[in-house]
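_Full entry_
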Amino acid sequence: MRAGMFLALALAIGVASPALAIDAGKASGTATIDGIVTPLAFAVETRKENLFDEKKRDTVLVLTDKALGPTRPDDEIEQSLRARRGELLVFALRIDGDKLVNVTVSHQGLHGLVILPGAWFQFSSSKSGGTLRMAKRDYQGHSYAVDAAFAASPSVPQPNPAPALTSDVKPAPARASAAPATTSNIDRKQATALLVQALMQRDQHRALEIIELGVDPNGRDQSGIPVLNWAVLMCQPPVVKALIDAKADLKYERVPGMSILAEAGACPEAARMLRAAGAR
């Protein structure tokens, strides 16, 4: 009898505080997507701007099956691209104060991101760790479940210098542009910087992937240069076409008289696309 009571107590303690036995930066448990069970092994903490109050910062806990490596924990675009290729499985928990707002999931074969409401989960956290649980739920053609404990370690900030034009042209002032409809919820400022970086590296495949995720086709780098101008300057016609299809502004001039069509003079295929779309 006493032995049975002792075993029951031990099990209760183990269930109530699974995160106590986990090392910092680690997770323990599984995620199940479409019936496929994957162990979750890593946990890192970062911060992001609050969804409703730009003066506040939310905590984001990123649980993955593999180490993020050079991918920043706040870079949901890169995480999504890697997950889509089967390199990562990501459960990113956004927490406002002590409330779980939502959980963003990225997995193989998924286009964009899946954002599950926080109310679907059983969530607990403390300074030493926490737990995340959800019974099987069907959402947008996939099924999701998770049962994991974690002890997230803080991320180490890394510099992310913005790309700049090497030409002698003075940058144009930034101006607001309307955001197109998108099926994914991504950090558009970050997506713009990643798209410009991909264009500078002439990585056409990656640039097209980022556009497909829902980048703002009128997004600009920190110097005010639109992504369409970058695509033209780097002579990437498929990227130009993708941005035109996403309703990029064709009337912007980096300097008076320098239309997007004039800039495309050294890239005839891009010029044909722009002219066909109504650029002058």
Remarks:
- The two ends are 88 Å apart (CA to CA).
- The domain at 188-276 is CATH 1.25.40.20 (Serine Threonine Protein Phosphatase 5, Tetratricopeptide repeat).
- The chain has two domains: 19-154, 188-276.
